[in-house]
Amino acid sequence: MTRGSWKIFVLFAVFLVAIPVLATFPNGRMTGGGSVFIGGIRVTHGFELHCDFEKKPQNLEINWEGHRFHLESVSTTGCVAPPPDPRPPVAPIFRLDGTGFGRYDGQSGCAITYSLTDEGEPGTKDQAFFVISCPGLGTVLSGGGLLTFGNQQAHRAN
User: What is the pTM (predicted TM-score) of this model?
Assistant: First the structure.
């Protein structure tokens, strides 16, 4: 197994184990954005996502090296309650995981799996992970980690 495929396997293993056991907290949402480096490439993102996948808006945009992904629909979502000592502001969640479909460089029908965390202020411990794949192209982006720039914020639903 190559180094890159090992990372993809671990990322998918985390999602396969985590998503089925997540509780849904319909009163939570997350906003924010920033950047992570994946294989030396700066990947920026901005979003507003709700724990209740039927709630609107559900926005997520990811950009890297002239490429662009825009979320069009959310298929599944799961949120994780905060640790016993939530950091300000108090919110019912600290992590939001989901799957959906969107456009990659204008091509519709591309699938995404994402995980976003809010680890308190000033956002230097927040994390973002993405796996995007498209018919005929395969995986076009996979990875993530600590935000280099930016901040992600968990909130109560509005």
Answer: 0.82
